[in-house]
Backbone:
């Protein structure tokens, strides 16, 4: 009834090629963005921002990064945590060395460092595929973790090896460090994620994304029609690592405030991979849905029993949470192996016929 | 999937999420203690006795004394799994609970402490990281809101070297000696390294640093290295499951247990029991007595467990980490009592608790009143010194129980304090903090 594209005629190529071709989608997304930018900071509590929304957005960006590589280009990677680590540590190193440089520029440079590292660790992908590549990227995870633990230069030789986000300003407002309010940090994260998500969306619709998908679907066929595997795969690794690097930088500077290599361990890589798989491979929306599922569900499960007046011992509650979360993952994967994004797609198709399906 | 199911699922999710923001209301006028605990995960063997110790001491104060000068204690646990990210979530969740907000945080994780140090100053909630966390926080001029008395990792490492010197017959004997530090590869484990390195330069022993990666279940390679190296002494900074594995491995290579000393987080009952006979002779540092024979334990059994000793034992009463939590909870409660002395007998705010911590003066006489005479030592905190550099004792496991085998061993304050001040000054410069002056 409401979700109909009947009567929406496209009269130009530009109109046909817009990101959201359906008017309702356009309005829907605009409304969501408006709520996220204006509504949420007005009503959300500090706990909501700090413990739920900021990590959700940061992980969504990391998931987009991995989705570009795994979902679109078909290269399995377990090095996400490592690339995020590069972003976090390089931001720290750069901003303590050049304290006057705008922190957002530092984020970009840290992302570029991560991109360079991703490029190097992407080289094996030219020779090996599938599970073997996953193992090769696992090496990135462990090697980078070892490096940032071992080489004191990265954390300015402080005794514990922990990096701490110093206070940095943007247009006179403190956006990092302890004095930055949760609202400000949330808005900065949201701006960065919105811009990068939009970029990713456009990237995958264009020539680059199409060549990634060609490589993913059948690399020999792609090569025959003139796509260079070397360039395409390495580009996927580089851009994916750039995204992960920026996510890692935000994680240290806009969410946690300080971190050690432990914060980016192998579990992190798996977590982001789960987000991508649960959310939907090859879908930007899926990255958001996956991140929301993985980050927010455990928090809801932890907070649910006390709210209904059920007073469980804390350890029992934790174990129940782990079990429920695990069964939810299994449930969703059985119901829809193509991820939450696919569920949304089905919902959209049904909405078109609602309330009179035939 | 049906559309209806989808929508229902969406609504259910949204309701759950919106309800997250609301936290349970607590009784008015209570003094609220947040508790970051870990009763699950690989660190649970260490986390459970700690959590029980806190809970029992707070309950004891409520049941025996009717609260702190009549102000009832309320507390809430939040599970962190020793994970820094969950720790931050718990902090955000609990910091505004209770009638006056959180009194003080005891993170029981060096990683979480590092996260909370900058936040605490902004939220005006003091952190009492008793014998862990950032050692530089001992400089109260830079770290106004953080306390780590009675002593720190750096002081402890210096006291360990002092102990080795005592055992070997003087500091000059240390020259050419081989000492290995087996440590958890994290901010916590690495804390002692700079002190051990500085002292290695000073006394001429050869230091080997051996890192064990989280969580520490696999240490074959580390102990193979030790077997090859044949160090005279091994010092360990471990936590959770890492400790018992290390002790088992040490036993399996027949390392002389008398020369294997853990720090105070590597010497609880759960660490030695799994190693069986192999653990006999293993030593560790501590700053309070072991066992449940102290007056305060008798009070706990009487007032918390209604005299049921077996139930008390099942809840870890008398274990090393349980006792440490009791000491820690006592410091917190006494700080509030101190603050009440100035601000009146009501629930204290974080700011007032901070004043109480900074002016805390627990004398031997006071310890006697608390049923802790001989259990731990008197402590006097000051504005400039949040650590007090207290001495340590060495306890040894005999296969059935821990017993104290040394006198109080002084720390090498002349070495440690300048290092603390340098580290604090670096932190202040990096984070643009102007140190306050202490008079």
Residues:
């Amino acid at each position: 009834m409401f979700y109909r594209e009947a009567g929406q005629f496209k009269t130009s190529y530009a109109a046909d090629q817009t990101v959201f071709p359906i008017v309702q989608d356009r309005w829907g997304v605009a409304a969501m963005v408006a709520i996220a930018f204006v509504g949420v900071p007005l009503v959300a509590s500090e706990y909501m921002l700090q413990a739920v929304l900021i990590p959700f957005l940061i992980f969504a960006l990391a998931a987009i990064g991995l989705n570009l590589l795994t979902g679109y280009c078909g290269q399995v990677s377990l090095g996400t945590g490592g690339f995020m680590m590069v972003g976090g540590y390089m931001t720290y190193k750069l901003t303590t060395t050049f304290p006057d440089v705008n922190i957002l520029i530092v984020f970009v440079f840290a992302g570029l460092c991560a991109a360079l590292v991703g490029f190097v660790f992407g080289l094996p992908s030219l020779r090996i595929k599938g599970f073997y590549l996953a193992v090769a990227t696992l090496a990135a995870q462990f090697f980078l973790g070892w490096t940032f633990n071992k080489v004191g230069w990265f954390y300015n030789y402080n005794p514990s090896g922990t990096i701490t986000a110093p206070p940095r300003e943007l247009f006179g407002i403190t956006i990092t460090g302890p004095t930055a309010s949760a609202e400000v940090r949330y808005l900065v994260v949201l701006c960065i994620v919105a811009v990068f998500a939009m970029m990713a969306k456009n990237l995958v619709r264009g020539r680059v994304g199409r060549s990634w998908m060609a490589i993913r679907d059948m690399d020999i066929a792609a090569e025959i029609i003139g796509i260079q595997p070397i360039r395409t795969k390495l580009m996927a690794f580089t851009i994916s690592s750039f995204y992960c690097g920026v996510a890692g930088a935000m994680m240290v500077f806009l969410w946690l405030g300080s971190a050690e290599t432990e914060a980016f361990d192998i579990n992190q890589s798996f977590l982001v991979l789960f987000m991508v798989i649960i959310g939907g491979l090859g879908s930007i929306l899926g990255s958001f849905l996956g991140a929301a599922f993985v980050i927010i569900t455990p928090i809801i499960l932890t907070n649910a029993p006390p709210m209904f007046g059920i007073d469980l011992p804390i350890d029992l509650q934790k174990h129940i949470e782990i079990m429920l979360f695990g069964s939810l993952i299994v449930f969703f994967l059985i119901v829809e192996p193509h991820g939450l994004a696919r569920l949304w797609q089905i919902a959209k198709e049904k909405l078109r016929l609602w309330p009179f399906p035939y | 999937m049906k559309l209806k199911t989808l929508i229902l699922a969406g609504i259910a999710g949204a309701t759950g999420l919106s309800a997250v923001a609301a936290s349970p209301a607590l009784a008015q006028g209570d003094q609220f203690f947040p508790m970051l605990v870990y009763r699950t995960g690989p660190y649970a063997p260490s986390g459970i006795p700690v959590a029980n110790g806190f809970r029992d001491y707070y309950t004891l104060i409520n049941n025996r004394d009717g609260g702190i000068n009549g102000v009832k204690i309320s507390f809430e646990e939040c599970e962190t799994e020793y994970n820094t990210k969950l720790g931050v979530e718990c902090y955000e969740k609990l910091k505004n609970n209770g009638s006056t907000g959180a009194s003080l945080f005891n993170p029981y994780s060096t990683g979480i402490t590092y996260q909370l140090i900058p936040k605490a100053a902004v939220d005006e909630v003091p952190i009492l990281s008793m014998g862990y966390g950032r050692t530089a926080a001992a400089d109260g001029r830079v770290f106004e809101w953080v306390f780590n008395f009675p002593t720190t990792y750096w002081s402890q490492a210096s006291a360990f070297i002092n102990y080795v010197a005592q055992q070997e017959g003087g500091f000059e004997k240390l020259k050419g000696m081989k000492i290995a530090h087996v440590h958890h590869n994290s901010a916590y484990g690495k804390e002692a390294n700079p002190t051990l390195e500085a002292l290695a330069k000073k006394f001429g022993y050869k230091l080997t640093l051996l890192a064990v990666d989280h969580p520490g279940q696999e240490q074959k390679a580390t102990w193979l290295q030790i077997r090859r190296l044949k160090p005279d002494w091994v010092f360990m900074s471990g936590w959770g499951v890492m400790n018992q594995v290390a002790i088992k491995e040490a036993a399996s290579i027949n390392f002389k247990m008398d020369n294997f000393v853990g720090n105070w987080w590597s010497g609880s009952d759960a660490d030695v029991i799994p190693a069986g006979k192999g653990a006999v002779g293993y030593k560790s540092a501590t700053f309070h007595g072991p066992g449940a024979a102290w007056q305060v334990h008798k009070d706990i059994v009487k007032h918390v467990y209604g005299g049921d000793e077996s139930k008390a034992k099942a809840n870890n009463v008398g274990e090393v980490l349980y006792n440490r939590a009791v000491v820690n909870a006592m410091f917190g409660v006494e700080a509030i009592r101190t603050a009440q002395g100035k601000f009146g007998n009501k629930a204290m705010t974080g700011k007032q608790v901070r004043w109480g911590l900074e002016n805390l003066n627990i004398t031997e006489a006071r310890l006697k009143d608390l049923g802790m005479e001989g259990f731990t030592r008197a402590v006097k905190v000051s504005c400039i010194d949040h650590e007090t550099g207290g001495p340590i004792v060495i306890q040894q496991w005999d296969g059935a129980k821990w017993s104290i085998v040394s006198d109080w061993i002084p720390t090498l304050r002349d070495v440690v304090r300048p290092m603390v001040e340098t580290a604090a000054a670096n932190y202040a410069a990096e984070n643009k903090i102007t140190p306050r002056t202490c008079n």
